[in-house]
Write a structure and sequence with these properties.
Length: about 160
């Protein structure tokens, strides 16, 4: 996406994570994609409400066309859903992609990635932070997926 933003002259904004990570991202992008127009790097303090209109104003005033959001799941999804109508840009939740791209978080070995187990590797790296998140959100996902599957099977059998 960054390469496409460079080619199409789309201004990009990074919202979330730490200032240090954002600086590393900016440096790497400037080296790899020198013509990308980074118009904003914003690391909201964890103790401050994310409903602050100054965030929205900063994004809108920047002229960004694409905003990468890394607030953690499900916080970033909830924030994007509740603010997307007020923001004049495309929002993309990227989660840990910021820290991976910045080199502050290690990716899973290729074998685990190919098996769809990168989440498990991340859980081993940060069990205190991720265990409850994975337990609740993954359980809810499995429940909802099974509910839809069963409903579809029942509908097929009724026809």
């Amino acid at each position: 996406l960054i390469r496409l933003a460079e080619i199409n002259r789309i201004k990009i904004f990074f919202f979330g994570t730490t200032s240090e990570t954002l600086d590393k991202i900016k440096n790497r992008i400037n080296n790899e994609y020198p013509n990308v127009d980074i118009v904003g790097l914003l690391s909201p303090p964890f103790e401050k409400s994310l409903d602050d209109d100054s965030y929205i104003n900063s994004i809108n005033n920047s002229g960004a066309g694409l905003v990468f959001v890394a607030l953690g799941c499900p916080k970033q999804e909830k924030w994007m859903a509740s603010h997307s109508a007020k923001i004049n840009a495309t929002l993309l939740g990227v989660g840990a992609a910021f820290s991976i791209y910045a080199g502050t978080t290690k990716r899973a070995p290729l074998l685990l990635r190919n098996m769809g187990l990168e989440w498990f590797f991340r859980l081993l790296q940060e069990p205190d932070r991720l265990f409850m998140r994975y337990l609740t959100t993954n359980s809810m996902f499995i429940y909802l997926a099974l509910k839809i599957k069963i409903k579809n099977l029942l509908n097929i059998n009724q026809n």
